[in-house]
UniProtKB/TrEMBL annotation:
Protein name according to UniProt: DUF218 domain-containing protein
Transmembrane stretches, start-end: 7-30, 36-56
InterPro entries the record matches: Cell_Envelope_Assoc, DUF218, Rossmann-like_a/b/a_fold
Keywords, comma-separated and alphabetical: Membrane, Transmembrane, Transmembrane helix
Residue span, DUF218 domain: 76-242
Lineage top rank: taxon: Bacteria
Length: 248
């Protein structure tokens, strides 16, 4: 019963509500002019499918499965890519917090540090006027987790993945590093690897922050529209577009 209630709720609240509204307009148009009604129905169907995990999970999962976590780590520096930060919010030892993907990447880097002792280089700047500087926040938080400041490098100027690669390559060269262990979200890893290869680096991919489960089941919730699924569809399409652009 609880799953039926969840399914109904998904159409009462946005974004499912908009699917119902568009469908209702299409039905109303059908009585007057079937051609625009069919076009609107087609658009509504595409919009609806993009909001479901039935579509979002395979899309983002296809990116996440391109690289597996290695069993052994062979490198001389752990390179972590940023994934968003907020500013002005209180933290335990300062202000500003990393958003979910960036925080997951940082957590993985801290765990890798415990296992390997390799220094951590966090790459990411302040992308927007009201967002936090990712590398500066990450450095503070890593030190707060007990990692020595001498083992944390902050590359705080990059605004996108291409700049992450170029600026990281320069900072690595300045500190004598040449074998990066690249930590980023699974969905982001294919594009990141391309950009780092363009920057004349050959990193060891260490993906984390997975979204889609490896084993998938079929149930009613797969057909429920949700903001999270819509976001995941958008993320996957953005990554595929970015990969295409990186190839050129």
């Amino acid at each position: 019963m609880i799953y039926i209630i969840k399914f109904v709720y998904s159409f009462i609240l946005p974004p499912g509500l908009f699917v119902l509204l568009f469908a209702a307009v299409a039905v109303w148009l059908w009585r007057k002019n079937r051609r625009p009604a069919l076009v609107l129905l087609g658009i509504t169907l595409l919009l609806y499918l993009s909001m479901t995990s039935l579509v979002a999970d395979p899309l983002i999962g296809s990116l996440e499965r391109k690289y597996d976590q290695p069993n052994t780590v062979d490198g001389d520096v752990i390179v972590v890519l940023g994934g968003g930060a907020s500013s002005g919010n209180r933290d335990l030892d300062g202000e500003g917090n990393l958003l979910g993907p960036a925080a997951n990447r940082l957590l993985t880097a801290a765990r890798l540090y415990r296992e390997t002792g390799l220094p951590i280089l966090f790459s990411g700047g302040q992308v927007y006027a009201d967002s936090g500087n990712e590398a500066d926040i990450a450095k503070r938080q890593l030190i707060g987790l007990g990692i020595p400041e001498a083992d944390v490098l902050a590359e705080n100027q990059s605004l996108n993945t291409e700049q992450n690669a170029v600026n990281t390559a320069a900072l690595m060269k300045a500190h004598g590093f040449s074998r990066p262990v690249l930590v980023t979200s699974g969905f982001h890893m294919p594009r990141a690897m391309l950009e780092f290869e363009h920057a004349r680096l050959s990193p060891l991919a260490f993906p984390t922050d997975y979204i889609a489960s490896r084993e998938s089941s079929f149930y009613l919730g797969k057909f429920s529209p949700s903001p999270g699924s819509a976001e995941n569809t958008g993320i996957a399409l953005k990554e595929y577009l970015g990969i295409l652009a990186a190839h050129f």
